[in-house]
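I had to read the description of the data format several times before I understood it. The format is easy to grasp once an entry is in front of the reader. For illustration, here is how one protein appears when written out as sequence plus structure tokens:
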Amino acid sequence: MSCFRAAALAAFLAFNPLAALAGGNGVLSLQLPTLIYTGAPFDAPFIVPNPTSQAGANMCFDEVVTCDIYRLTVKLPDNYDKTNPYGLVAVSISWTSRTNDFELFVHEGSETTLDSIIAGNSSSKNPEIVTFPALPGTHEYTIAVFPNIITVPTTFAGTVYLTNAQAPYPQKGPKPRFTEYRPPADAAQDAPEPTLDVNPATGNIFFVANTTTYKVALDDSKPSDRFGTSSWENVTGTTTGLFTLDPILTGDQQTGRIFVSHLAGATSLLEFTDDDGATWTPSEGSGIPGGVDHQALGAGPYPEMFQFLSANPLYPNALYYCSQDLFTALCARSDTGGLTFAAPVPIYTTECAGIHGHVKVAPDGTVYVPNSGCFVGGVSRQAVVVSEDAGLTWDIRLVTEAVPSQGTDPSVSIARDGTVYFGYHAYDGHARIAVSRDKGLTWDTDTDVAAPLDIQNVVFPAVIAGDGDRAAFAFHGSTTRGAAISESYTGIWHLYIATTYDGGQNWVTVNATPDGPVQREGGICLSGIGCSGNNRNLLDFMDATVDGEGRVLVGYADGCVGECEKAGPNSFTRVGSVVRQSDGPRLYAEFDKPKTAPVPVTRTPTTPGKQGKGLFLGALAPLMLMIFALVALRRKH
């Protein structure tokens, strides 16, 4: 039971006399704000998985052996929404064996159909946590839990409790502005899960859209009413355009080399370019065997103890290829600039959720892999998995306040001075970001950057850092409360970017796409193959980077184009798009605009006949000298 909530909740349960075992049903109220129950068929452990779960149907057809049903009544005062405008009901389930996996869904009413789902989580996290609005009056819900993977017979611990999202608070700091860039009609129209990076030597942006790689140039000299002017050139390599199970792109900003990988099972089709896509060099793809899903690439310098490897004539930096199997995640290092890889090393086995975020390499060579749920020392938190020895060994470092959530992968970025910024989807649906100055050993200033604009649901965290005290955090967000994964969700989504210029003490969040949403009503489903409608169009992540002049760039898939932007029906598209910072302080302070322009000094030219007093006295200077000389001579006599 101790692994499913933060320490505050654990203490609350320990001393709360109203928290009681609820069995198969319970009433949540102000008098009983926490319910605890044990999930098990026939009061015995689960021994087999739910077949519909493994097929992606997420159906509780069987309440006897492969599904647990909990009937929940939420009974709150009629004015509860006035006294608790950010009130939520949270449901958490946890289990002991890390090789098992359960899925959690909340249905409105007594039905357990796909159409009745209002909140759900089918990730590999332990615990699984979902939230939904705490509404005034009396409402009935069904909590359906079923085993996706059972390797060891087990029960689960369930907890239902009242909580609150954070209310808005004042923002302090400058507000940067951003410009949108959309491709022409013949480019990047199918771009789910886009990634991008920049060659700082040339300023060219590289953007992967499904199997196509584009070189993107943004033109600031041609202003427009909304979208900036850009060119999108197809520079796809010779092998990476064949097919993909997962696309990924990254760049080495020290050398300008761009890497593109397309998952092909236990390896990938990988190529790199040193001339902005004019030519490509194919690679062996990964360390063999790699994981079969969700690969990520990260390039950067070696740590100090391995600096001798930078003398390699083939390439001076390291490239890391990380991927995951069912539970185990693996990372392999290339010392040949991506041509070949060493054997992969497990970075965790059952301690963390299988799927991880994108690998990042710090300026000092430390390697970070973010994860949405790891279990260490009896505590479950989101985390960074860290290597300080070039990928030979790895350490799981929990992010202190980041309870695992129903959201997407977290994102990590490392500033020039080694400051680590960790952005994540919190259990209440908000976007939070924490800061570490000791490589993830301790964390501080964990901040809800969604609250200032009353953003209630977020997806796709993407963080990028610059100078030590500067970072940006991009995410899609909606100000509407409710089950964001559901097709019945009525919220409208925009791209938001939060920026700090003081090391995370203060963040300023702005709507980077105010003139048009990135998705209209219908939600953004995060349940993988369990999604049943059109709202799986954006898949699982987007990306952010910084260019050579410190401007923030975000690559995302636009799910609302054409009539959809004018309040028409949702287009559910996935058009590749880029947002770039157009004004405000940069992530690199040396490229900030001067706060005030220098005041020009105006000098009035002088002309003969219009002499000033200075010139007049100057003309009398010989006479004055003679007078002074006579006075001095007279004093001597």
Summary: The longest strand covers residues 137-149.
